[in-house]
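Model it.
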Amino acid sequence: MIPFHPVSEIFPMMQDAELRDLAADIEEHGLIEAIWTYQGQIIDGRNRYRACLIAGEEPRFQEYTGDESGLVEFVVSLNLKRRHLNETQRGVIGEKIENMKQGRPEKDANLHLLRRDEVASMLNVSPRTIATVREVKRKAPELVPHMASGEMSAHEALKKTKEKERLAQRAKIAEAGAAVPQADRWNVWQASIETWSAPHQYDFIITDPPYPREYLPLWEVLARRANEWLSPGGLLIAMSGESYLPEIYAMLGAHLDYYWTAAYLTPGQATPLRQVNVNTNWKPLLIYTRKGERYSGKIFGDVFKSDGNDKDFHKWGQSVSGMLDIVSKLCLPGQYILDPFCGAGTTGIAALLHGCLFDGIDLAIENVNIAKGRLHDTAKA
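Modeled.
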């Protein structure tokens, strides 16, 4: 059995079924491409060598006579010619090569290290892709085979890695928040907006219902329940996406009186609405009163702004800065705010920071516990 040189491990071994197919082909047609060696070790052709052993065929070898420092580049060149690898697959190979010591193990201490830019140039791949692969490998190694096979891009793997981190963070915060008792200034319950009985009425309902089409019926439930939950002269302020505004206006108007539509600006990267070819940087704030009533609060402007996105605690979460801009411009300290889609509690944090009182409900117990933990920390800060 001829040993394998470390550089031969840059490219993956075949699976058993593929190896058997290769062995059958070699048995029928012979070994077409020689197996490359260097100083008695195989540097390229591990699969062909193993297939020859399975097929009972005599391997044919060719010796690499170049300089030892060029081994990696030589093996990479051979394989890139015969393999059709995408950017991410080349990035996976690059991550394996990066800082890899060339040569035999006993000489490792004295061997040259390849820099990332050298590896990237060799593979015709972006250094950023290699860095992304390395980050994914460190944080979510189970995704590396999916990148290596070409079924997942490095960008997609990184998104999954960050989502994995976010979910782990959420679970940790929720576990701590589960032990937090309710407080005088805030309360959060696991409940449905259809059946929840409010302990009292509220000066404001400030909320951000889910946007996808399947959640549209919740808007009518919200409008109907807002008539019960709002104090006389209070306001419902509901953030909405733009896609289904006509339907939402109709559902709200069936139970409430229209008051105004304000703009909530979301600077930074625009959100692409591909179904209508629009990149949007704002959301409507739909403002309504109870039927037949007038708003009795302070005067306010109709443009609000977030400093940036914040999806750390909830995939649909808004930033504290944005919700605080809404709360501080509409509400007076000491007034009571309800968020019936409270998610991770960002509206409640803004309420507490402005000196308001807050109640929230959410269907998901994890959201409830995260909100409790965050509100507890905000209240004691």
